[in-house]
Task: inverse folding
């Protein structure tokens, strides 16, 4: 099944149900489909055909969803662009994808106009908000298109999205994702639209990220109402949940922490929430423990995946967040909550390998590799990076270090390139961070390796203290001494006001190394 079928099926089942709510505007499934068809016809008139690339540069908005489905219906490839990227990086992504058309949000119009001489293959720019000189206008394009249902030949194996990874080093890498990359996961894990069941889903994760796109497609297939937020803001989020009586949300750890720590948290009625999915970055144990207490009766799901895997490949389900049972069972569940990403989904194979590519025994740290029909076949027009991304026998290297326990649960131990090697001993920054964060005065912590003449590298802790607290480096180091092997404890500590993070809450370890390494 291709992703355009998701919309067509939902329209047939619940045409009058609201598909999108965005800034006081509401569109039903039928209304959205009509606009999508009009836009698909307009794009075809503008010369867009199967396999062409069409970019989108905007924060979350209703036009984002319409544009994706319109592009998908034509058989073209949608290219969502990171709106936080710098101009030269955006130019690289647009040129590398050879985008023929670019949809542009209001705040990026001037930047694209200035970049235009560098964009060699771009034929048309479409302003999705107000008219802009020298560009086509979104609403005029929709008005000009036919309202007839748009049909084209689409195969499940066709690429539907070209998504660029954030790229911690070097240029972003393009990941071609097929209709199957998404539909296989959704068909196995999401109930189809039901005329008797209505659910509301708040989307705050940016749609240039695979989690955002996956959230959209799952909601459409499920016949849910998507409540869109341009970007996350904690008070607005709580007001929206209360006003719309939302049932489902996805939050990254930093968002969830902001919600439960907000001074006005208790003043909002968030009782409509039934499912909170989290992921995209490491979840501190104290945060999820506090969240479970703050949202009694809510089902929590930890979803782990990468752009290269198309969607979620492991989950820590609601039953794993229920801390009950015997003392032994409670201890296991608490350990899983602190660092596990759960077990692989049925259509994915995952194993842990050593540097020679051999599988390692249970509870031994190695690199996490994955295989399955949803995993990408390679990076866009980059054979060298593709070769490095796979083992000789075809397993995707996730670049995440971890181990698998005897029950099949996978635990993260940090990124492969973040590993600290001290005197030949490997140190996982995540393990040291978990210990430091358990200090009652510590809010956040990150550990990096710094050069050392004698040992090669030494661990250094970058620490954010809780409000009103004071501590010394010796205090943090001494606290670590009783909980870590001697070679693992940090040798130095730097206190900072906050840690650098991406839009999805991922720690920018590279920036920390540049500033404090």
Result:
């Amino acid at each position: 099944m291709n992703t355009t079928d998701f919309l067509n099926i939902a329209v047939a089942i619940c045409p009058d149900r609201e598909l999108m709510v965005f800034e006081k505007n509401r569109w039903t499934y039928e209304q959205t489909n009509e606009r999508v068809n009009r836009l698909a016809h307009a794009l075809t008139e503008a010369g867009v055909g199967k396999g062409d690339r069409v970019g989108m540069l905007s924060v979350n908005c209703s036009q984002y969803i319409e544009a994706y489905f319109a592009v998908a219906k034509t058989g073209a490839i949608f290219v969502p662009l990171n709106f936080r990227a710098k101009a030269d990086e955006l130019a690289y992504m647009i040129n590398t994808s050879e985008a023929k058309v670019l949809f542009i949000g209001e705040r990026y119009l001037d930047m694209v106009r200035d970049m235009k001489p560098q964009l060699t293959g771009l034929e048309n720019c479409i302003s999705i908000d107000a008219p802009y000189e020298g560009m086509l206008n979104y609403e005029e394009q929709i008005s000009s298109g036919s309202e007839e249902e748009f049909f084209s030949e689409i195969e499940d194996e066709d690429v539907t999205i070209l998504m660029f990874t954030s790229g911690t080093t070097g240029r972003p890498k393009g990941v071609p994702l097929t209709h199957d990359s998404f539909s296989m996961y959704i068909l196995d894990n999401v109930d189809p639209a039901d005329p008797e069941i209505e659910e509301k889903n708040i989307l705050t994760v940016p749609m240039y990220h695979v989690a955002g796109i996956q959230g959209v497609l799952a909601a459409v297939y499920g016949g849910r109402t998507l409540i869109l937020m341009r970007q996350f803001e904690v008070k607005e989020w709580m007001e929206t949940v209360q006003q719309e009586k939302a049932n489902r949300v996805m939050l990254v750890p930093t968002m969830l922490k902001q919600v439960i720590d907000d001074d006005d948290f208790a003043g909002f009625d968030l009782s409509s929430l039934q499912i909170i999915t989290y992921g995209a970055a490491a979840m501190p144990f104290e945060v999820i423990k506090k969240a479970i207490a703050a949202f009694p009766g809510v089902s929590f799901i930890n979803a782990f995946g990468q752009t290269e895997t198309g969607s979620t490949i492991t989950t820590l389900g609601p039953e794993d967040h229920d801390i009950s049972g015997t003392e032994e069972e409670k201890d296991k569940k608490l350990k899983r909550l602190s660092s596990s990403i759960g077990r692989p989904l049925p259509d994915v194979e995952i194993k842990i390998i050593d540097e020679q590519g051999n599988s390692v025994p249970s509870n031994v740290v190695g690199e996490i590799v994955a295989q399955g029909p949803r995993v990408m076949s390679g990076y866009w027009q980059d054979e060298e990076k593709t070769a490095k991304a796979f083992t000789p026998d075809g397993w995707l290297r996730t670049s995440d270090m971890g181990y698998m326990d005897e029950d099949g649960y996978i635990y993260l131990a940090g990124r492969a390139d973040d590993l600290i090697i001290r005197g030949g001993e490997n140190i996982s920054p995540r393990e040291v961070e978990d210990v430091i964060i358990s200090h009652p005065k510590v809010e956040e912590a990150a550990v990096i390796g710094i050069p050392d003449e004698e040992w090669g590298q030494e661990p250094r802790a970058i620490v954010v203290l809780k409000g009103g607290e004071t501590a010394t480096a010796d205090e943090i180091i001494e606290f670590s001494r009783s909980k870590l092997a001697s070679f693992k404890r940090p040798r130095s500590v730097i206190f900072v006001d906050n840690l650098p993070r991406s839009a999805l809450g991922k720690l920018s370890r590279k920036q920390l190394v540049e500033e404090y390494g």
Remarks:
- The two ends are 49 Å apart (CA to CA).
- Residues 136 and 438 are 55 Å apart (CA to CA).
